[in-house]
Description:
By secondary structure, the chain is mainly β. It folds into two domains: 4-43; 46-93, no CATH class. The chain is 14% helix and 36% strand. The protein has one helix and six strands. It has one helix at residues 81-93, and strands spanning 4-9, 16-21, 41-44, 47-52, 55-60, 73-78. The strands form two sheets. The chain has a three-stranded antiparallel beta sheet with strand order 2-1-3, with no helix packed on it. The longest helix is centred in the C-terminal third of the chain and has 13 residues, at 81-93. It is elongated and about 50 Å long.
Amino acid sequence: MTWFINHYHCTDCGTKWSDEWSCCCDDECPNCGSRNWSPVDSDDLSVIVSESGGEYVVLQSPPEVEEDKPRYRVVGRAETMNAAMALAGNLNVDR
C-alpha cells in the first residue's frame, strides 16, 4: 500500500502540520478546525531505507495492509546506501 506523509498549511490561522496516511487526502486544521485542506506537499514513504547494524535495510509497506499504518516489511538488504536506494527506487517504479 502506498504510504504518505502529507504536509498542510491552513491559511485561516497560519498553522502548518503533517499527517501520515495511505493517500494524499484533505485534512482538518488541528488548531482552528477549518476543513478540507489539501496537502501542499507529500512525501512517498511506501518504501524506505533504514540503517541497521552496519547494513542498509529496505522496507516496504505491503499492498495488503489496512489504511491506519504502513506495517513495513523487509524486502531487501544492501551493504551500501547507494545499493539500497537503487533497490528502493526499483520498488517505487513498480507501484
